[in-house]
Structure formats: C-alpha cells, structure tokens
Specification:
The complex is a heterodimer of chains A (94) and B (730).
Chain A (H helix, E strand, L loop, with lengths): L4 E5 L12 E4 L4 E5 L12 E6 L4 E5 L5 E9 L2 E5 L5 E6 L1
Antiparallel strand pairs in A: 1-2, 1-8, 2-3, 3-4, 4-5, 5-6, 6-7, 7-8
Chain B lengths: L2 E2 L5 E2 L28 H14 L18 E9 L10 E10 L5 E10 L2 E3 L10 E3 L18 E10 L8 E11 L6 E14 L11 E8 L4 E11 L3 E9 L15 H6 L3 E7 L11 E2 L1 H11 L10 E7 L1 E2 L5 E2 L15 E5 L22 H15 L15 H6 L17 H9 L2 H4 L27 E7 L3 E3 L4 E9 L5 E4 L9 E6 L5 E4 L11 E4 L4 E8 L1 E2 L2 E2 L5 E13 L2 E14 L4 H11 L3 H8 L5 H11 L5 H12 L10 H7 L8 H12 L4 H6 L1 H29 L1
Parallel strand pairs in B: 13-14, 13-16, 15-17, 16-19, 21-31
Antiparallel strand pairs in B: 1-2, 3-4, 3-12, 4-5, 5-8, 6-7, 8-9, 9-10, 10-11, 11-12, 18-19, 20-22, 22-27, 23-26, 24-25, 24-30, 28-29, 30-31
Helix pairs in contact in B: 8-10, 9-10, 10-11, 11-12, 13-15
The chains are: A mainly beta (94), B alpha+beta (730).
C-alpha cells in the first residue's frame, strides 16, 4: 500500500468535517494535516505519526496524541478511510 | 457592594466621579502610582517625542511621571446602560489582562461573566418571583477571581489602548465585545466601543491604589453604552492549579532535570499555577496499561477538588503505560470525555521505552520516566492540550511533537538538548489572550478551530515603520452579490531594505482583514491558512513596492457585503519577526449597489446564502456542488456574470480528479469585460498558456494578449491611483 504523498479530501459529509482538507503523509511515518478554508473544526489529524497496521489498515495519531486505527481502501489516486463510527472519509491524490 | 431599594431592585454602587475631558491634556497629578515608570533615559526620549505632538510648558514640572497601564490582571466591571423599565440591574464582572511587552506596546483582552440577581420563587406554582438574591461581588483582596462557567457571556477583544505612556490622566480604550452562545458555541461581535478611561484612587481592598480606572463606554455612533471600571489585582494574567497524581511505580514529573520546573513554565506565560503534587499510590485498575476511560475515572475519583467553577484545576496522572499511545495523551477529548466536561486531565507514560536509535540521542533506549527532560516536556505538552492548544511545528517548543523534535536535532547537538523550553510566541499569546472559556478546564471542547475564537490583536511592535500599505478596490462600486476585488501595495519608503512576508497570498497566512458595513458592524475575513505555522520573510528593497490582490466574498460571520451601501474594507498584514509581530494596515471604501432587476436579485441571494460559494471561489474543484451551482446562477445573470466568469474559468481550466482541464471552455468564459484583479489576470494568462493543445494556444493568443495588456494597464492605473491617494493623504 503506497499511500505516502499529498491527499485532498473530497468527502463533504458532516462526519468527515473534522478531518483535514489536505493530508501530507510523509514517507518516514510523519504527517501534516491542514485546512485551506475556515472551518469550525481544528483538523483531527494535525501533526503526528502514521504507520501501516496490516494490508488494509493505517494507524494515525490525533490532535490530542491518541492513536487510532482506520480501515482504508487504496486504489491508485483514491484513498478512503473508515473510522470506528462508520464514517467514510474520501481523499484523492493532490 | 450594591444597595437595595424597597422593591428589590438595585441601586448601582457609588463610583469615582467622571472627570470631564479638558481642552488640553492635563499634566499628571502627583498621586502615588506603581504604574510602569520609564527609566530616566527612556523618559528623556519620551519627553522629546511628546513635545513634538503637544506643547508642554518648559521646563517640565518635577516630578513628571508618564502614566501607563500596569501589566497584569485587573478586576473588571462593566455596567451597561439599563433598559427602560428594567426592574433589576445587570452588570458583568470579569478580568482584563494587560500584557505589557514594552513601555509603549501592550496587548490586552478580557472576559465578562454576568452578575445577575437570582430570583426567589415561591414554593407553589410560580407566577412571579418574591425576591432576589444578589451574588457576592469578587473581592480584590483575594487576587484573580474565578467565575462560574454558566455565567460566561463576553470576550473583550481590546483593539486600541491609546495610553502609550501618556502624560495625561486618561486614555482611550477601544474594544469589541464577543458574546458567547453556550448552546451553539458561537461568538457574535458587538461594538466597536470606546471608553475614555480615567485614573482615580482605588476603593479599599485593591492592592495598588494608583492602578484603578473608570470610564464611560460609548458606541461608534456616540451614545453611551455603559460604564467600565478596572482595578489592578495581580502581576499574573490567569490563575490555575495543576494536580499531579501517580501510580507507585511511576515518577511524578516535576522538572526537566536541568532547573526548569512547572512554575517556571507557567510564570513565563503569565499564569499563576499552583502545583499540587498529590497522590503517589493510585491503584492500577487493570495492570500496567491504562485506557482513556480508566484515567478519566481515576481523575474523578482521586483529584483533591472538583469544582471547576471555583478553581481552574487541571489533572495529570503518571502511569506506567497507555493503551492508546506511547508517551502521553490529553484523554479528555473526542470519545474520551465521558462526563462531557472537556479538557480536565491528561496522562503520561513512565514505562514506555524510548527507541534505541540514533534519532533519540542522549536518551535512546531509556525508560521514559527516567529521561527527565522529554518526560517533563510531554507532561507540559499534554497539559497544553488541556489548556486548548494544538500541535504547533513552528519551533521546537512545547506544542511541537516529540518525534519531530528528536528528528530535527543537528549534530553535534543531540535530542533532548534541542528542546525549546518555552511555548511558541503564538501559543504564548493564545494562553494569555484566548477567551477564558477556551483555555479553562470544562470550557469549550477540544477540537474547535482557533479561527472560531476571537483574540485580541497583538500590539507588540510599532506599526511597521517605514512601510506603507495602500488598498485600492478594482471597482469602487460593485453590484450586490459580486465579490470585491482589492489590490494592496506595500511600499518601502526608507533608504534600506525592510523585511516583509515572502508571500502576500491569502493562503500564506499574513493577510486578513475586516469589513465595516454601513451600520458600523464589523465582519472579518481570515487567511486560508495552514494550521502549522511558519512565517517566511523576504526583504523589500529601499523605495520598492510590491502589489498583490485579494478577492473577498464571505468571512467568519457570513457574507461580507450582504446589503447595498457604503462599506470600508481594512486589509491587515501581520507577520512574525523573531519575538515580535509586525503589523501593517490599509483601507479603502467600496460601494455595493442594489439589485437592478429580479434576475440579479435572485442570483445575488443565491450567492449570499451559499457558504460553499466562497470555497468554490477559493479552491476551485468539482466537489463543492452547491457552490458551483450558486456560481452558475450568477453566470446566468448579466450583471454578475463578468464578476464570476474568471472563477468558473479557473475551475474548468484545471484538472480535477479524473476530469481533464478544459482550457478552451475556460477561454470561452473570459472576455474583455471579465472583472479580474491583477493577480487573477496573471493567473488567467498562465491558465491559457498551459493548454497542451498547440492549436488551442494559437486560438487563444488574442485573448492572452488582451489579458496581458490589461494586467499591465491595471498596474499602471493602480500606480496612478496610489499616487493620488498618497498625495491626498499628505
């Protein structure tokens, strides 16, 4: 699963709103997430670490330093996260 | 103390008499004051400076003591003008924080809590109250007061303190009041207000008799809005308690092993924090590892006090290991906040083993609790989250992440020697000046954007001396529903190069602004900023100018130009330079004209009521369907079409996902009449020249020529306009 790189969120659902509009997954296991437009939410992923946790899972740290595991679907330029509450967060390679 | 009349209503307490404004600034009186006194050298310079502005008698009488607001916390009381027919008085108590960075530079903010009599209802079916209980007033002898969260009402965003070490006995305080809605967690701005604050003797109980002021509060239109009193009570800005509990096998983190402890950390940000090193025998509920829920439950069971309306108490628990992360966590957020009282506590892990790799420098392979410096740093970091701060990569300060700091060490310096034992300047300001309800435990939930909270502007530096900012609207009148395009130019009027932001794009973060509508209401627009902050700086050569543009439509409070009328747009540039923040402002008037027909009115309504229209304007892309639809509606109206043609051209002319860029379609939208800023014209030319189809590029050559010419002519026109504006200003 080659997911390092810059991703732009395409989901517009309410549940995906706390996730950053842009996500830069650095090859060394660090990431930066940020919003380009004003939002009522600080990005749930702002700065931290990420790592694969299996063939279809990623572990990512949150803005409060907790680490969460997500089921992911990766297909070329598309990366979809599924959080524990059933929210689907879609990103496209930017 | 208030006195009561027979009907239960209150009579306002006696306050110092109002001193009418004199024609000339009076010389300072000789009351004893502990106010900041300039040094002899500073005083000499100040006298010379003041003489330039106001004629002073010579020689200056002795003693001459310039007056300025003393840094620290003031007990504040705001009494609005009572509504006609109101049976009971309402006033607000709170604190004002004056953050004095130098003799003339100060940042200030405040918070107000309602002080309203409680109604006493009869024991049976209540029809009307039978009496009132008046809560006690805060006692200045007791220092910084703590108010109940439910009474929180206003953040005071201080915008102007014209005291600058004045020789007069008064100064003008400018401020906005941001009312907090406890249900929606949103802020509504009221004001702007001004108050002519007059120094007077403090009532009994205040620790500094010379640092008490009062003044009448007025609205921008002039009518009296109320009365404000402030009295100095502490050199600190805020007060809190940190309780540290631990399991027996874990160290209580108390310092960094090199002389910096909790008090030092919080003294540096102006917080008076009592450290309560408490239980050392906390029981492990399920072995070495702790879940977020277990830490939360232990905090509730073991902390020494729990009334967050009487004390800002944060809780840190030191345990062996954490379920959900390695080093530390502010668990009282997101799903971890089981009692729905946010940001009360955090936990750190003493028995995580630091990786045995070179990145971790001097502490590689160590047990975390035995590595005093990073262990303590993590404690401060997690309590920083409890105080409402997020990660901040601007430096190696407390809110950066530990692995990033470790990875950034450059030999021969090794981690943890490269830790910066301080909060970044921005975080320091946040801890001092964000609203109480943001930083105090049990306030606003963790996860809200900094952009949602008001904060006082920094007044830490002289306005960027030697630089001017000229703002020029592309069109002085725009039809309602259209975005407003402004050019702004920074000019270096000195004989030496001066630092300015490397990028003046909204995305770079230095540009923001305000729009004042015909009624005086203020709406703000923010930078489309990355949350990880870093100000890039470049030099502007002597005599040189640099111009950029903004296109604005919506801001934090919704549409910026929601109705026809005369507006004034302020563009504010702020950037960091070392410890200081530099500020530069300029403004220009803009007229918004009313709808000319039904089509225009309908299209304008659609634009003004569709928040995504701004996002489409700023981002482009195909994913904002409502925004695209609103802009299409505008394109179908002949009045608004020229104002939105570029926005749609930018969208269709760029690839999005699997859709290819359609430069021809973009070119179809652009004409000589298209309204574009200089920046947009340049971007349009770049867009048309990016066409991979040679035939397409050829077809668009005429249009490219027209736009290139127009960019040049726009520049020339703006230069002429700026010259005229400057000449007029002179």
């Amino acid at each position: 699963m080659e997911v390092a790189g810059r991703w732009r969120k395409t989901s517009r659902s309410d549940c995906s709103a706390p996730y950053p509009e842009l996500l830069e997954l650095e090859p060394g296991g660090r990431y930066t997430g940020w919003n380009e437009t004003p939002s009522v939410y600080h990005p749930l992923w702002d700065r931290g670490g990420w790592e694969p946790a299996g063939p279809d899972r990623l572990r990512i740290s949150l803005a409060n330093d907790a680490v969460r595991e997500y089921v992911v679907e990766h297909d070329g330029d598309s990366l979809v996260f599924h959080d524990a509450d059933g929210c689907r967060i879609e990103y496209t390679r930017s | 103390m208030s006195t009561h009349t027979g009907d239960g209503s209150a009579v306002l307490p006696a306050e110092p008499p109002y001193v009418p404004e004199a024609t000339l600034p009076p010389l300072p009186d000789t009351i004893e004051t502990e106010a900041t006194i300039a040094s002899g050298e500073d005083l000499a310079g100040l006298e010379a400076e003041v003489e330039d502005r106001i004629p002073l008698p010579r020689p200056l009488p002795v003693p001459v003591r310039p007056k300025s607001l003393r840094g620290g916390c003031y007990l504040m009381r705001y009494t609005p003008v009572q509504r006609a027919g109101a049976l009971q008085s309402v006033h607000y108590d709170g604190t004002l924080r004056v953050d004095r960075l130098s003799r003339t530079n100060v940042t200030a903010s405040g918070d107000l809590y309602v002080h309203q009599p409680l109604k006493i209802w009869p024991g049976h079916l209540p029809s009307r109250p039978v009496g009132l209980i008046r809560p006690s007033e805060p006692n200045p002898v007791l220092g910084i007061p703590i108010f109940a969260r439910k009474n929180y009402r206003y953040y005071m965003r201080v915008t102007q303190i014209l005291e600058g070490s004045t020789f007069a006995n008064k100064f003008t305080l400018g401020f906005e009041l941001h009312r907090f809605n406890h249900t929606t967690k949103a802020w509504t701005v009221e004001g702007p207000y001004t108050a002519k604050m007059v120094w007077s003797a403090a009532p009994p109980g205040y620790p500094s008799s010379g640092n008490y002021l009062h003044g009448e509060v007025k609205t921008a239109a002039g009518p009296a809005a109320g009365r404000l009193t402030i009295g100095w009570i502490s050199k600190y800005l805020r007060k809190a308690t940190l309780e540290i509990d631990r399991v027996s096998a874990s160290e209580a983190t108390l310092d960094n092993g090199a002389g910096i402890d909790w008090r030092d950390v919080y003294d540096a940000i102006g917080w008076d924090v009592m450290i309560d090193v408490s239980d050392a025998d906390v029981t492990e509920p399920s072995g070495e590892f702790w879940s977020d829920a277990e830490m939360h439950a232990t905090m509730l069971a073991r902390r020494d006090a729990a009334d967050l309306d009487r004390e800002w108490r944060y809780h840190l628990i030191c345990v062996r290991r954490l379920d959900s992360t390695e080093r530390g966590i502010m668990y009282d957020a997101y799903g971890g906040d089981s009692n729905n009282i946010p940001r009360e506590g955090a936990g750190i892990s003493s028995h995580w083993t630091i990786p045995n790799t070179a990145t971790w420098g001097k502490v590689r392979g160590m047990r975390f609790g035995a590595a005093a410096a990073p262990y303590f740093r993590t404690g401060v970091h997690e309590i920083g989250h409890a105080m409402g701060l997020y990660h901040n990569a601007v430096d190696n300060g407390f809110m950066h992440t530990t692995p990033d700091i470790a990875a950034s060490a450059v030999p021969p310096v090794q981690f943890p020697d490269n830790i910066l034992w301080a909060f970044s300047p921005e975080d320091r300001k946040r801890l001092r000046h964000l609203p109480d309800i943001w930083v105090r435990p049990g306030g606003i939930s963790f996860g809200a954007s900094y952009g949602t909270a008001p904060i006082s502007p920094t007044d830490s530096v002289e306005e960027a001396e030697g630089l001017t900012l000229t703002v020029t609207p592309l069109l002085e009148a725009v039809p309602i529903g259209a975005p407003v395009r402004l050019d702004f130019t920074i000019t270096n009027e000195t004989e030496q190069a001066l630092p300015i932001p490397a990028s003046l794009s909204m995305k770079a973060g230095a540009v923001r602004g305000r729009v004042v509508d015909p009624s005086g209401a203020v709406r703000t627009f923010w930078p489309l900023v990355r949350c990880i902050e870093k100000d890039e700086i470049r030099e502007l050569e002597k005599g040189a100018s640099v111009t950029d543009s903004v296109t604005i439509l919506r801001g934090a409070e919704g549409a910026l130009f929601p109705a026809p009328g005369a507006y004034r747009v302020f563009v504010d540039l702020e950037w960091s330079l070392g410890e200081a923040t530099i500020r530069l402002s300029g403004d220009a008037p803009v007229m918004v004209t009313p709808p000319v027909d039904e089509s225009h009115a309908a299209a304008a309504l659609r634009i003004l009521t569709t928040p995504d229209a701004l996002l489409t304007l700023a981002l482009g892309g195909d994913h904002l369907e409502e925004g695209i639809e609103a802009i299409r509606t505008a394109l179908e109206d002949e009045v608004l079409e020229p104002h939105y043609a570029y926005i749609e051209a930018k969208r269709v002319g760029k690839r999005f996902g699997k859709r290819k860029a359609d430069v021809d379609a973009a070119a179809e939208l652009l004409t000589e009449d298209t309204v574009m800023s200089a920046r947009e014209s340049r971007k349009a030319v770049e867009l048309l020249e990016s066409d991979e189809d040679v035939a397409g590029r050829d077809r668009n050559q005429d249009l490219i020529g027209v736009l290139t010419d127009r960019t040049t002519s726009v520049e020339k026109k703006k230069k002429g306009s700026r010259k005229r504006a400057k000449a007029k200003a002179r």
